[in-house]
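As a warm-up, study this chain.
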Amino acid sequence: MRPSGLPDNSAELGASIVRHDAVSDQFSASIATRNGARAIVLETSLDFAPGAFAVVAVTRDAKRGDVGANRIDADWPSPAKSEAAMSKDGAFSSSGFLTRDVDELLDPSVSVSLETVVCRGLETKVPGVVDYRVTTRTGDEIVAQERRALRVGAPPERR
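Now compare it with the structure written out below.
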């Protein structure tokens, strides 16, 4: 939910995952903030089966009473049949930008959090080392760079 600009505000956020015209998952929360300059985000972890689905999200700003809703339709790929993929607005690719567009301006007074989620199917066997890199640039100049070797163990045996 975008920043309200109002201090000491709260919001109600909720979302449903819809598959085959039926709600398969749903979650919601009331979230309070002292600073009206920050966006309010509701996060949860879900197990996703491959196939078509929709996310239907609703927000309500407690002070203003504003209600917002959004629906995103997508088709989740099978991790057993494809390489790593990401989704933005229902389109999948193996690289790209998810929540910030290439030329989108960021507010310097608000902190920015970068997160990566790696998904793999239960049947996918990829033990080994994965090279993860993040590079921050100002124009063409590299101002920060980090690299991590992520060690991936074998998936647990299914019983």
